[in-house]
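Give me structure tokens for this 104-residue protein.
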Amino acid sequence: MSSILADVLVRTKIEKRDYISLLMDEDEFEKLRNDRISLVVHNGMNFKSAMDQLFWPHEEVLKFLKSGCRVISIHDMDVEEILKKSKYEVVYTINNNDETQSYA
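Here you go.
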């Protein structure tokens, strides 16, 4: 009997890297976010609400990470409550020292 990968839940925390703060101030960073939003609107994207538009750069990062993979579910939220109620197995982690650990 073969094992089939059915669903992978990925919990993320997206933050601005420290070096970005050294390269630009908050106003310049906000201008980049707004420029990105303007670009997708110019290319035909319609947002359902002002909140959707405001959070678009964040959502775009999550969509990029997913890259069209149907078995990966990427969430930027605290999933501890979900995990308490679900059966799961950690298969790969990256700790704060950028060291990787693989489980199998």
